[in-house]
Amino acid sequence: MPGLAGRELTEAWETAVAGSGLPLYQPVGRARGRVAFGAPLAADIAAERELADIVLTDLLPVWQVREAVSRCAPPGWRLVDLFDVWLGERSLAGQVVAADYRIELDGADASVVTAAAAALMAAVRLPRERQKGGGNVAYDLRPLIVRVTASSTDASVVVHARTRFDPVRGTGRPDEVVAALGDLGGTPLATASIVRERLLLADDPA
């Protein structure tokens, strides 16, 4: 469900889980138990199979936690799965290395987008600029892209992109991928919707 992002999204989940009846771990100085998402999510991006850490003070049966979280999930969200994680594991945010996006384009030509995707993957560098600290910063988008493909239906053109999360270079954003495709295709592309299909962790298969 798009609409909430950043701190607002975290607060919505923390408030919901606080009413679940689960024995939540509450850090000192915080009013609620902490819910930590794997990576920030923009307000205009929908999500599938997002990952979040929720810490409990007791070990409970999976069915009990599943029922509690399913009852309290914020509107538009649905629990898909639960995983018992070792407390000594690295933080979830520190394990995220990539993300898969499904981007539906508005009024695009399938042949142009397909050719642009091939050109993007063949490119050695993709110089671009992004806003940072009130100004523009030049960077190379290409190292942040794992793969980009395009497909079409009777109604639309869909771009599938996997982008990297790099601690030094930053993150490959889906809007920048669309902008790069537009530049390579010689015409700006309009986005109808963006879905982050999943986050990939360092130990996930490629």
Descriptive notes:
This protein is 26% helix and 31% strand. The two termini are 27 Å apart. It is built from five helices and ten strands. It folds into two domains: 6-89, no CATH class; 97-201, Alpha-Beta Plaits. The longest helix has 13 residues, at 6-18. The strands form three sheets. Strands 2, 4, 7, 8, 9 and 10 form a six-stranded mixed beta sheet that branches.
Distance between the termini: 27 Å
Pairing-aware structural class of the strands and helices?
A: alpha+beta
Shape: elongated
Rg, rounded, reads 19 Å
Assign the CATH class of the largest domain: Alpha Beta
* Helix count from the secondary structure assignment: 5
- Would you identify the CATH architecture of the largest domain? 2-Layer Sandwich
Number of strands: 10
Question: How much helix, percentage-wise, in residues?
Answer: 25-40%
Determine the CATH topology of the largest domain: Alpha-Beta Plaits
Estimate nothing, just give the exact number of structural domains.
2
